[in-house]
Design a protein that fits this description.
heterodimer; A: 2 domains; 6-stranded mixed β-sheet; 4-stranded antiparallel β-sheet; globular
């Protein structure tokens, strides 16, 4: 089966040949049907440039983009019938009502007014903005506009959705609702989603796979947890009731990084080193009243990459 | 081209039209003010020189005015529709749909035709009620005149849109300026013969000149040189093709820098 999206050696160079700026540097990846793929990286790494190229609103210097096995620029209109987009950073005509916007957009995808209403009403209700249907977009809050953008992206019943930071302006509860909706849509319709976000916990929870971009290049393509583990240790927090000095001695002996805050010690160590260390504590008759073990997160990976970039 | 996508563009601007007092003023207010000012001016000039030579002056000036509205309407509708997308930060949303640039242009032109019918009917009615003059006295020739002027309006509109889609906000005043660049050379209110010789060459290269000269000939002598109409339509076809090709080319060129930068 053809991937929903296949990107091969995609490159975007701005500027003259004398002073070129490579925004996206020969990246290749694919998006399987039903997959949610996270596209991450520090600001200026090429995420938005990549999405713009995938939408056809920015031409690429070299490489190729195929949707459903068909070359994008050659079959642009047919392909975009099944590809939609939402971003916090674009808007909709603010002097039009929600309903008018959805009607005129629906026509661009071949939907009659009746079909547009039939498809969009349940989504408007799901996102809590059905009551705003007759209101102008200018009367909506930033969060409501973002939700309307999501309705716009989904009511055309796409096969691929490109989402550029769709939850950036949303309150945590609504953002969580949006993530649940994305999961549900994927499970129900088998659509594929390319997702960019700066909220690493969201990406970890939502994405099947994550691609990390840095200076226009893909530097990692893996499961979110694997990426996190590749740069960060587990963190153990122990509240020591007896034996702090012995704990410190053990940590130093095993070259484990630690930090002390009153009766609490925080240690940073690899996953496989945790059981032997806890055993050693027991053997040294260290008593602790509380233990917390924290997995490395995608945020650790992101910070690691960003630090290197700086 | 898909009809529904063309209708999608039509409805988008139609809804904006209904909401915007500025757009409604373009349809009614400004044509009314123009007719009032120019009509009163020509009536006054006629009263100062009550000879035969000035007999048709009010009708000529007001017909010229209504006709120039057709070109202006065609021009501004194309470029202003594009600017609406800039102002609404909607360019990426719009062109990331299956919409083709030709369908966008067709939708804009369709709405332009509707708006034009309204403005022209309104203008003719105002002239009739204020000055008891019937612009339709030129008969069936009104329609090919109007078509020719309208096509040139679109040509100017696509020229302006080419600059706007490439350079963005910094040149948006072009939308309002470019039409008037052609007005002095089009001999809207005076014959080409009053222009200096070198500008007459430019004038005869414009399809609008043939229409306005023909209109004056029709009003004064009752005859219209049909060759004027054919030359005008011929030039229009060539210029519209060139102008729209330029727009398509600059749109493609603009994609190399990305539409997102224009929002």
């Amino acid at each position: 089966m053809d991937p929903a999206l296949a990107v091969h050696q995609l490159k975007k160079v701005y500027g003259s040949s004398a002073k070129p700026f490579v925004a996206v540097d020969a990246i290749s990846f694919s998006l399987k049907p039903g997959e949610i793929l996270g596209l991450l990286g520090p600001n200026g790494c090429g995420k938005t440039t990549t999405i713009q190229m995938l939408l056809g609103t920015l031409s690429y210097t070299s490489g190729s983009i195929h949707y459903f096995g068909r070359e994008f620029p050659l079959h642009r209109a047919d392909i975009l019938q099944s590809v939609s987009f939402a971003s916090t950073y674009t808007s909709l005509p603010y002097s039009l009502t929600v309903e008018e916007n959805l009607h005129s957009f629906g026509l661009l995808y071949g939907l009659s007014k009746k079909e547009s209403t039939k498809r969009s009403d349940p989504l408007l209700e799901r996102f809590g903005i059905l009551s705003k249907k007759k209101q102008k977009v200018s009367a909506l809050s930033a969060g409501q506009v973002t939700r309307l953008m999501l309705v716009k992206a989904f009511y055309i019943e796409p096969k691929v959705v490109l989402l550029d930071e769709p939850t950036a302006s949303l309150d945590p509860d609504i953002a969580s609702e949006v993530c649940a909706f994305l999961q549900e849509q994927r499970n129900k319709t088998g659509l594929s989603i390319l997702f960019t976000s700066h909220k690493m916990n969201e990406v970890t929870a939502l994405c099947d796979r994550t691609i990390f971009l840095k200076r226009g290049k893909i530097i990692a393509d893996d499961l979110p947890l694997n990426l996190a583990k590749s740069v960060a240790n587990f963190r153990i927090r122990l509240t020591i009731s007896d034996g702090m000095k012995r704990t410190i001695a053990l940590a130093e002996k095993q070259n484990i990084l630690y930090r002390i805050e009153q009766r609490m010690i925080q240690l940073s160590l690899e996953e496989k080193a945790i059981p032997p260390f806890l055993n050693a504590l027991i053997l040294s008759q260290v008593a602790y009243t509380n233990i917390q073990i924290e997995e490395p997160s995608l945020e650790d990976y992101f910070l690691h990459i960003a630090e290197k970039t700086l | 081209m898909k009809l529904r996508r063309i209708l999608g563009v039509f409805y988008r601007y139609y809804y904006i039209l209904l909401k915007g007092p500025q757009q409604l003023s373009d349809l009614f207010y400004w044509p009314f003010i123009d007719i009032l000012l120019w009509g009163l001016t020509s009536v006054w000039i006629q009263s100062q020189n009550p000879g035969d030579a000035q007999k048709d002056l009010p009708l000529m000036l007001l017909t010229g005015l209504i006709f120039w509205q057709i070109t202006w309407r065609g021009s501004i509708d194309v470029s202003l529709s594009l600017l609406q997308e800039f102002w609404h930060r909607n360019l990426v949303n719009l062109f990331s749909t299956p919409l083709k640039i030709t369908e966008w242009a067709a939708g804009v032109i369709l709405l332009c035709l509707c708006k034009l019918c309204i403005t022209v009917c309104f203008g003719i009615a105002v002239v009739y009620f204020l000055y008891s003059l019937n612009i339709l006295t030129i008969g069936w020739m009104f329609f090919p005149f109007a078509v020719s002027l309208l096509i040139f309006g679109w040509t100017i509109g696509f020229l302006a849109a080419s600059a706007i889609i490439y350079w963005g906000h910094q040149v948006e005043t072009i939308a309002f300026m470019v039409g008037f660049v052609f007005a002095p050379f089009s001999a809207v209110f005076y014959p080409v013969s009053v222009l200096p010789m070198w500008t007459q060459i430019i004038s005869w290269c414009l399809p609008t000149t043939y229409v306005f000269e023909g209109m004056r000939s029709l009003l004064t002598s009752g005859t219209f040189p049909l060759t004027h109409l054919w030359i005008s339509l011929g030039l229009n076809i060539v210029y519209l093709f060139l102008s729209f090709s330029l727009f398509q080319r600059t749109y493609q060129k603009s994609l190399t820098k990305g539409l997102a930068r224009l929002e």
